[in-house]
């Protein structure tokens, strides 16, 4: 039961998106001209730098991986009309859970150990988000605010573990002990950090898509998201679908964090996932909450991230230019006026 | 200064200082909330005010001028937030996030450009915020004296703003129309009024108060710390909801948060609990309060 | 020269609906002029144009002989035109005074609202027109009739001379309608001119001086009220005379399917119970009509029987078993079908396709290992779309369908599986004649198949036409439960509906005289 839209609407959607991106990039270019003493060089590295060598390219794709997971997590929640604002804490805690499991296991089979670690991440983060969902179901507590508050507290608690019980005394980094190398994920594009978690991400997007649009529970979840009163009238257990989407959302975030640890970092480093949660929201929005659309949307943000890094390393601007570029995209991506322009032009 | 009398309670005295940014941001945010708009940009507005106040204060050598310019910058950012949301019809939640993201990135980029560093920027020349001068006997009044007096000017300005806001919201035509916009915008439209004007006004007011809140943070510290707003904007939003969207409610909620943070500062020294847990305390207390409140409301409705 | 003239007004909506087609409309000074037509005839659009809420694509407006442009309600009000909408534009949390002065608040010291001046001026308007509202009362505490009065006061406060009322009686009780007519006559005496939009012919005959009949976007007739009768108006409105007459079953064929025994529904904070000791029985092959003015418990009855609200006392039995507290899903498994009054929010998911709407109650049937069988579902939807003649096809979003088609989707879904109890509420509200016929036919089919039907409606004509047994509700109680025999008149049912008659009063059957 694919949601078919007529071709016209799809076109308007793409045109609107194109406007958004053009406008945002235009503003970034303007900013670069103001801030940089070598604007041409900066612009080159910002827009093209990510493709100039394997290291940049691979790392860019690697950054897209957790964004796909957080984007999926948010799109599942949004489609069900619940609001998970705790993504930052959920992904951060997922990584810690995976680390802790690996550290606790005796030197075991890498594959099974890794799987257990990811399971731990899924359970912990799913549980944290599920808590907000539970309170929403039971007592109508606003899950948007409660998930945000819990996540803020969780971030601090994770920091405690990083700098306390799990701290690695041998180095000066704010990081936990490293997990055993047998749990690490295979690199697929050296010298970059891109690893097999990229395949997990693509598989996850496909699975979430199949779930939402082909499965029984996915149908019920979407109906609840569109009209809860109707769903209840039709016999769907609406309470269940206040909690389940939150659990799934948290689980996806946690999975993303766990894979970041296993694949890229090998330990939980302070702040390793900061920003992934918020960007997940933007990714979901650009993708219009469609699980498959999350993939290109995640690439867009990874591209910005990589461009900023390349520009920073090769020119004279700071990395935070990426944040500004992202904010422009955020500003315009939901501006109906831009989409309306496309539609009006077609009518005339 | 606190501790001037045998009956001073540093805990409460500090709470009053700490609660001020929450209160300022909350009152400003209240205007947007009453107009029916969710305003999560408070965080970014505070950060903007914080940065530009101290930068302009240092540049002009004049504290007041610096603060005013800082507020103006925060209002400019608020204007951008409002314009895109209202006139380009964007999703208010996302534009709020965008505003925070922008403020966060922009302040660091600018700091780097101007001061060549992305870390803490000290401004040794900045004077301390003047404190309100009162006759010493007032300060020695048991308990109340210490709580009410000895704070810096901005604290008292804030109280004045709160009172003024209550008056405006409940006694003026503007306030009536603002509330009407939030309650039932179609009625406002049917009367020939434009709801977006009132929503924009609410946003600009939040820019004003948040700018002042940010100014207080940096000027008191005589330094700019990246992300100095550190969650205060979000707490202010929670205060608005817990305070049932009334000025008095926000005042009380802000006070509770102020007490929680004051306590956690105090406890950091005295109690052997890891720092992170103490920092997490305000969030945990708020969640618990929220849940208890919804349980209360749930059972009251059931009868 | 007419006081108001609208010449050649046309309005085309973006979805290609020609709401007004070169309409000429005029009103004399000081008259009460009615505009009648079925739903969708274009009456409301025309008045929205007059009040500045919509702009015409063509045509002109003259007031007192002078051409005027009305671009917004502000312009309209400056010209002395006021409108009372069908759905009130009042802010429930504000007081009467605040609602009336909103936008033109009297000032004290330039900055503050002068509440006393406002209250004084409003009181003047209130008393001089015989209303009795407290300006300081909060609107949400008022009755519907009083809210309407506040809307009228709003206009009079702004010195309106031409008042437009859009379906003013649709939400009022008989008593409140009387009061409204008194008000209109008093306004007429005070020199005001009134335009009433309505589809209730009885009221047109009672209150108006002249009547304009519209059909499908055009004006088809203008008459002096004294020179027409209801039959002719009805003919002009619809093009043919409409009568509801159906075969009635002689006797219910079976056992009770649904029994309500002393059912109560109380809500905290409300003194009067929403449902107060309801006793009702529906048998198989029987249509039980439930009549009443909205606000007297019909909606609550619907909610509790459908399992969407929990009763606080009594029992509900289905085939002899207690079903109170069971979930909607379980009730459906037991054979319930339910066509809700709230078609758009409860009965449909407007953003979903017809197919997705159709399977919401039955998607369990199309599963294989947790996944939905797309092919089977498509077949199912296509079959139903065809047999119910639903325009638009299975893939159309329900929100793009007309009211009649939306109701067909709901009926198709509900009647697709065999049911022993069907609950329908306001099934033909807002539907045109053809769609209404369709609904009645389907309901009669269900009865033939052996279902018991609970037919809740505020439309007395259709209940008298279709029900085998009639229950009347007043203030949350059943005050009558009568077989539908030919000599059961509308007037008698009306008495029950207004609380003037009560067969089940604790003190014994009552009949009261006219209430004050």
- The name of the CATH architecture of the largest domain in chain C is 3-Layer(aba) Sandwich
What is the total tally of β strands of chain C?
A: 26
The SSE order of chain A reads HHHHHHHHHHHHHH
Rg of chain C (CA only): 25 Å
Task: State mean pLDDT of chain C (0 to 100 scale).
Answer: 85
Describe the structure in brief.
Chain A has 348 residues and is an all-alpha fold. Chain A has helices at 7-35, 39-48, 54-79, 87-104, 110-139, 143-163, 197-214, 216-226, 228-233, 240-265, 276-286, 294-314, 321-333, 336-347. Chain B is an all-alpha fold and 303 residues long.
Report what the structure shows:
The complex is a heterotrimer of chains A (348), B (303) and C (516). Chain A has a domain at 60-295. Helix content of chain A is 72%, strand content 0%. Chain A has 14 helices and no strands. Chain A has helices spanning 7-35, 39-48, 54-79, 87-104, 110-139, 143-163, 197-214, 216-226, 228-233, 240-265, 276-286, 294-314, 321-333, 336-347. The longest helix of chain A has 30 residues, at 110-139. Chain B has 303 residues and is mainly alpha-helical. Chain B has one domain (10-302): ABC transporter involved in vitamin B12 uptake, BtuC, CATH 1.10.3470. Chain B contains 13 helices and two strands, in the order H-H-H-H-E-H-H-H-H-H-H-E-H-H-H. Chain B has a two-stranded antiparallel sheet. In chain B, helix 8 (173-183) crosses helix 10. The termini of chain B are far apart. Chain C is globular. Helices cover 31% and strands 26% of the residues of chain C. By secondary structure, chain C is of the alpha/beta class. Chain C has two domains: 4-238, Rossmann fold, CATH 3.40.50.300; 256-335 and 418-511, P-loop containing nucleotide triphosphate hydrolases (Rossmann fold). Chain C has 16 helices and 26 strands. The interface between A and B is large, with 45 and 43 residues.
Keywords:
heterotrimer; B: 303 residues; mainly alpha; ABC transporter involved in vitamin B12 uptake, BtuC; two-stranded antiparallel ribbon; 2 strands; 75% helix; globular; C: 516 residues; Rossmann fold; six-stranded mixed beta sheet; 16 helices
